[in-house]
Amino acid sequence: MPSSEKEPLYVRLSRTLQQFIEQGVWQPGERMPSLRQLSREHRVSLSTAFQTYCTLENAGVLEARPRSGYFVRPARPVLAAPLAAPSATTATPVRISRRLAEVLDGAAGSFGPFAAAVPALELLPVAALHKATGRVLRTAGRTSLGYEQAAGNVGLRRHIARQAPRWGGNLTADDLVITSGCLEALYLCLRAVTRPGDTVAVETPTYYGLLQTLENLGLHALEIATDPATGVDLIELEAAFERQQVAACLFVPTFNNPLGSCMPEAHKQVLVELVTHWQIPLIEDDVYGELYFGPARPRACKAYDRDGWVLLCASFSKQLAPGYRVGWAAPGRFRDQVERLKAMHNLATATLPQLALSEYLAHGRYDHHLRQLRQAFAQQVQQTTQAIQRYFPADTRVTQPAGGFVLWIELPASGDAVSLHEQALQHRIGFVPGPLFSAQARYDSCLRLTCGQPWSAGLEANLATLGRLAGLVEPTAR
């Protein structure tokens, strides 16, 4: 029997359709026959027709549009990645809060959930978390109403420690401090290793929430060049260490927000060796670490830490329950200082969310949920990228993250993200313009879009509008 006859029918049919497309039977952008029509014309089942189109979609030949069917993907070249900005030569006092408040207040009530980096509720295990909370209320009773110890619930800390091998770590419950979200973990770690007026090295661009934390603590930001794929430039970082006094590094090495960059493991190992040699604490924000698209979770920098100079911070906000506000820190040699600061700051993290998460991690099929969530985010990032490719100006650049759910977009040279933001709000479409991701207000032509919501015709329509506005926007004189 010929080898081609051994192949599944949908594979042979997909090859035939791809040949037709290459021969011009269907042009780029044209709608393909419906599933029923394909089934009828080729005398195959609906299941085979569906598998055929899925195969062509995965191969990049077709694209599915909600409630519209399958279309031949436009033969437009893949968008290039944004360019890396150079390192800053001096540290900068951070003054971002007023600008951030203006942007967030202006975007209140906007359609098109591209601004906030939060997962859609329908992607979260709501029912399982409710069941876990109900079991806690029935069994813990009054215990759930009392204060926890400053370090956090020991059961929850044990569950987090058991997950450490995922990222290459080896922790015990005593190594951890539970916090009110990842931002509090970062805040406490910064307080433990810096004083007002100190300089902290950060990636550029970096998450505006990290810059706001530096501002609240009276710290200066030293922006280090960061590649959109491989992360912070280690040569530039070492040069900064040699040139000036740096009190700490505050990096997101795994799926940086907003770039989505992920440092290769060899780079992470060198980074840890570098900060250990200089005895400069590295505060590692790993809040997106579990949201990888590849076959394995990237190792954290903390995996290479032997002397306690890496303070690892994370939370359950991006994958389980944003509103529970439960995060944690593994602060290494600074663990006792962080626990004392936690006790002084707000005594302890709320008890009930800790107990509920501990119960869920024990019985809630966490790994199964993460697999589904990763698949959803990977698909949503791909669909958003395809829409940007369809609707934005031809010279637009966009990142290609291997995890997380944010995209960093660089408009053509004349683009102005602040003006685009103002015009987009008139259409009730919100996003975060690039200058908010820099202490020096860089990135006038950049913006961050989030992909936390399931794809829909409404999202695509908003991106089409945003792309059209991006092609019309005039730079603002400043």
From TrEMBL:
<keyword id="KW-0238">DNA-binding</keyword>
<dbReference type="InterPro" id="IPR015421">
    <property type="entry name" value="PyrdxlP-dep_Trfase_major"/>
</dbReference>
<keyword id="KW-0804">Transcription</keyword>
<dbReference type="Pfam" id="PF00155">
    <property type="entry name" value="Aminotran_1_2"/>
</dbReference>
<dbReference type="GO" id="GO:0030170">
    <property type="term" value="F:pyridoxal phosphate binding"/>
</dbReference>
<dbReference type="InterPro" id="IPR036390">
    <property type="entry name" value="WH_DNA-bd_sf"/>
</dbReference>
<dbReference type="InterPro" id="IPR000524">
    <property type="entry name" value="Tscrpt_reg_HTH_GntR"/>
</dbReference>
<dbReference type="GO" id="GO:0003677">
    <property type="term" value="F:DNA binding"/>
</dbReference>
<dbReference type="GO" id="GO:0008483">
    <property type="term" value="F:transaminase activity"/>
</dbReference>
<comment type="similarity">
    <text>In the C-terminal section; belongs to the class-I pyridoxal-phosphate-dependent aminotransferase family.</text>
</comment>
<dbReference type="InterPro" id="IPR015422">
    <property type="entry name" value="PyrdxlP-dep_Trfase_small"/>
</dbReference>
<keyword id="KW-0032">Aminotransferase</keyword>
<keyword id="KW-0805">Transcription regulation</keyword>
<dbReference type="GO" id="GO:0003700">
    <property type="term" value="F:DNA-binding transcription factor activity"/>
</dbReference>
<dbReference type="InterPro" id="IPR051446">
    <property type="entry name" value="HTH_trans_reg/aminotransferase"/>
</dbReference>
<dbReference type="Pfam" id="PF00392">
    <property type="entry name" value="GntR"/>
</dbReference>
<dbReference type="InterPro" id="IPR015424">
    <property type="entry name" value="PyrdxlP-dep_Trfase"/>
</dbReference>
<dbReference type="InterPro" id="IPR004839">
    <property type="entry name" value="Aminotransferase_I/II_large"/>
</dbReference>
<protein>
    <submittedName>
        <fullName>PLP-dependent aminotransferase family protein</fullName>
    </submittedName>
</protein>
<feature type="domain" description="HTH gntR-type">
    <location>
        <begin position="7"/>
        <end position="75"/>
    </location>
</feature>
<dbReference type="InterPro" id="IPR036388">
    <property type="entry name" value="WH-like_DNA-bd_sf"/>
</dbReference>
<keyword id="KW-0663">Pyridoxal phosphate</keyword>
<keyword id="KW-0808">Transferase</keyword>
